[in-house]
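Input record (one chain):
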Amino acid sequence: MNAPVSSPLPRGLYVLCDDTLRPDVPLARKAELLLAGGARVMQLRMKRTPLREALAVAREVVAACRRAGAVCLINDRVDLALLTGAHGVHVGEEDLPPEAARRLLGPQGVVGVTVRDVAGARAARDAGADYVGLGPLFGTTTKQVNAPVLGLEGFAAVVRDSPLPVVGIGGVTLENIARVAAAGAHGGAVASDALLAADVAERVRLLAVAFDRGVQGTSLADGGV
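The corresponding structure, as predicted from the sequence alone:
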């Protein structure tokens, strides 16, 4: 197994504050609930929010994250990250290239990249990324993904050879997040399992505890089962 690599992200639960889930609840309120549960890393994903409104929302969410001591990343939009003082961005396959995001954000900004395999993780490292989101780990209904499901063993195999910290994405829930952590994940990205819960803050607390328990258990990346 490779030596652990450093990351600007705290290890553990990685929550997504998404405008496609429970659209009746304002994004700022969703962020408030996620932070109340102890979220330390939050990605703000606004696929349906008009740009002018998105700027105002992002300012509010970034400020709330900073007050709570949480890292706030903006999905895709480097311009919003710069205008709001967010910690960085997460970009996907159809978004701004990571090397461009790095140039705009400078050395202090956090850049995350969605990848599908070890080659993608290495390319992300070469482009200046700080971490990768790897998936889909399991099936997910939050976002359409044209890529095969990795499963835990496939995920652990990539984690072993990745030059960057890996956040597991796609279908991560309370029922499986401990196994994601045990597979060597730096983080487990959760959207619907948190935001669709009856008590969002409590669900976040339970997810964070479960991830930490998985870290303390036998790691699949170390050859455990």
